[in-house]
Amino acid sequence: MKMIIKKVQLENYRSHSNTTVEFTKGVNLILGKNGRGKTSILEAISTVMFNTKDRSGKETGKSYIKFGEKSSKVYIDFIANDGREYNLKTEFFKTKPKKQTLKDMTGYEYDGDIQEKLEELCGIKKGFEETYENIVIAKQNEFINIFKDSGTTREKTFNKIFNTQIYKEMYDSFFKRSC
């Protein structure tokens, strides 16, 4: 089973006062005019699930908080690889580190390293945040850069995206046996 994000709720996150987005099975489209917060929704997922930095490359909570507010919250309901539903709550503060809590649907709250637990529950591997940003977010005005990279860099990127390394390994194995 693959991880499935069911719902994202944003409170005072960037331009969002209180926004809830529910995802359905299959492909979901977030559509709207420029500057309405579409990228912020995807960035919130990336920030809390994959521990990525904000658009400026900083890790300060201040950049995630709506102007005039003291904190912001992101709630994500998801189904993990074990088939169980979880809720991840992340609160950002202007001057303190973010606070994360992870609960399963029975109310059991996990302690310890939340990011490590997310990696385990969702099959998220170190370095996945770059792939997420390239594929899911399709960084504004940067997506085309993948195609401008050198052949070797482009090959590495697409190998990560499409997991084509397995086919290369099968080909190499077959070729070795036939020689």
From TrEMBL:
Pfam families: AAA_23
Superkingdom per UniProt: Bacteria
Ranges of residues in domain Rad50/SbcC-type AAA: 7-149
InterPro entries associated with the record: P-loop_NTPase, Rad50/SbcC_AAA
Species in which this protein is naturally found: Fusobacterium animalis ATCC 51191
Enzyme Commission no: 3.1.11.-
Keywords, ordered alphabetically: Exonuclease, Hydrolase, Nuclease
A molecular function GO annotation: ATP hydrolysis activity
Keyword Glycoprotein: no
Protein name per the record: Exonuclease SbcC
One record GO biological process: double-strand break repair
The UniProt record lists the keyword Nuclease: yes
